[in-house]
Design a protein that fits this description.
With 248 residues, this protein is an alpha+beta fold. The protein is 36% helix and 27% strand. The protein has a 5-stranded antiparallel β-sheet with strand order 1-10-9-6-7.
Length: 248
């Protein structure tokens, strides 16, 4: 049985919380989203994303007869969540089209789905998934950011990236373009693994090592989420922070 906790916080600087989250423990599905856009439209985008993912998941249960064929193909996970995220992308674009005041809204989204001994991650944007095992932390997702492209191209160091004025510019988001291409990851999981989903309000303030140090000191998942959010706020809280922690 999964142990889990979650928390979202406005932070110390922002006037609104444009993060959103989805927790469906009976379905083993967890999502965090971080909205972008002016005039509070980022808040609309992130909430629309998690609502649409929930609606899709409930309308298309993975174990249902019409999904069994896909489930037992090697690419069932990619096929299922690509269909889900593309539908969400289209719904956000449609909403923005019909409501001009929402023009330009978009959102990151990272989802974690667990099935038996497998963890399936789908990601668009710079919200992250981590796994903590045997006292070590590993980032599972790749940030879709302008800075990350420069780092991989070898034109920017990690130290330079931390100070770059465009470090928060994302290159993929739900609602940003007509077509969306998520990243997909799958991992074997074992009891006592901890999976962490978070928006950049956390990893923008704390290093992976600092996150790990907090994770290693707390057994209760709700208390762990609170400690992580408080640590981000203590470092400045320049953004909204949302965290979901799951122990296998």
């Amino acid at each position: 049985m999964l142990k889990f906790g979650f928390r979202t916080d406005i932070g110390k600087v922002r006037r609104d919380n444009e993060d959103a989250l989805l927790v469906l423990p009976r379905a083993n599905l967890f999502v965090v989203a971080d909205g972008v856009g002016g005039a509070n439209s980022g808040e609309v985008a992130s909430r629309k994303a998690v609502h649409s993912i929930e609606t899709f998941f409930k309308a298309n249960p993975i174990g249902a007869a019409d999904n069994l064929e896909g489930k037992y193909r090697n690419n069932w996970f990619r096929s299922y969540f690509l269909r889900c995220f593309r539908k969400v992308n289209n719904e956000i674009l449609s909403m923005a089209h019909h409501k001009p005041q929402l023009s330009g809204m978009a959102t990151t989204a990272v989802s974690a789905y667990m099935d038996g001994g497998k963890l399936y991650i789908t990601n668009v944007g710079d919200s992250r998934a981590y796994i903590v095992r045997d006292g070590e932390i590993m980032q599972l997702t790749e940030d879709h950011t302008y800075i990350n492209k420069l780092i991989h191209a070898g034109t920017l160091s990690l130290a330079e990236a931390a100070m770059h004025p465009n470090k928060n510019v994302i290159t993929r988001a739900l609602g940003a373009e007509g077509a969306v291409e998520p990243d997909f990851y799958d991992f074997d999981i074992v009891p006592k693994d901890r999976v962490l989903l978070c928006t950049d309000g956390l990893h923008g303030e704390l290093s992976d090592e600092e996150i790990l140090a907090i994770v290693n000191t707390e057994d209760d998942m709700d208390d762990l989420c609170m400690k992580l959010v408080n640590a981000a706020n203590g470092r400045g809280g320049r953004d909204n922070t949302t965290v979901i922690c799951i122990e296998i």
